[in-house]
Amino acid sequence: MEQNKEKIRHILQYYYDKGKNATHAANKICAVYGPDTVSISTAQRWFQRFRSGAEVVEDAPRSGRPVVENCDKIAELIERDRHSSTRSIGQELGMSHQTVLNHLKKLGLKKKLDVWVPHDLTQKNIFGRMDACESLLNRNKIDPFLKRMVTGDEKWITYDNVKRKRSWSKSGEAAQTVAKLGLTARKVLLCVWWDWQGIIHYELLSYGQTLNPRARMGGSIASTV
């Protein structure tokens, strides 16, 4: 059964007056009245209001949904999924897009671009890869299939003009300086195949040609682009 919101706020004020922090207060309340009675973010917002001098915890009598209740519900949705859009929140709570934006601003929330971090393998992933490697190594001891494997790859190589001209200069005079040309837009495709002993074949395709996908399975087939 959902507890009276004003009752919960009075309990929050009691813990605030005792000098406890918001997390401690929220955990104590949820331990008594249920795990979803009050969120830590809600407790933190009320503690902030108490610090600013607010003493009234009752909702003001007025029509419409209270602002505090709106903020609490929006905060709960954000905690559930931090990638939630303002329009999806508005549809779920029956609010306009601008109203959701206003409440998010009051909560001090704004969208930030996620930061890329290296992918961490789980223990299951790590052990799975170790098992696969060990299985392949054991198989290679019985049937050395790794020595029969041929690998191929390709690499774009840009033209680099390294040709220099000679100019006449007097004896003891420094040679003329000429700016080196940068890399050109022209490039060729280097295709290389190798086995366990090293490179077994390579070729440079003519300008304007790329490797046909069938060449990956054997043979050097070029296609004009």
Topology:
Elements lengths: L4 H13 L4 H12 L6 H12 L15 H14 L5 H8 L3 H10 L16 H20 L8 E8 L28 E9 L2 E7 L4 E3 L10 E3 L1
Antiparallel strand pairs: 1-2, 2-3, 4-5
Describe the structure.
By secondary structure, the protein is an alpha+beta fold. Strands 1-2-3 form a three-stranded antiparallel sheet, with no helix packed on it. Strands 4-5 form a two-stranded antiparallel ribbon.
Entry keywords:
single chain; 225 residues; alpha+beta; three-stranded antiparallel sheet; two-stranded antiparallel sheet; disordered C terminus
Average of pLDDT: 78
Structural class: alpha+beta
Percent strand equals 5-15%
Number of DSSP-assigned strands: 5
* Strand order within the widest beta sheet: 1-2-3
Morphology: elongated
Helical coverage, percent range: 25-40%
Largest sheet: 3 strands, antiparallel
In short:
By secondary structure, the chain is an alpha+beta fold. It has helices at 5-17, 22-33, 40-51, 67-80, 86-93, 97-106, 123-142; strands spanning 151-158, 187-195, 198-204, 209-211, 222-224. The strands form two sheets. Strands 1-2-3 form a three-stranded antiparallel β-sheet, with no helix packed on it. The chain has a two-stranded antiparallel ribbon with strand order 4-5.
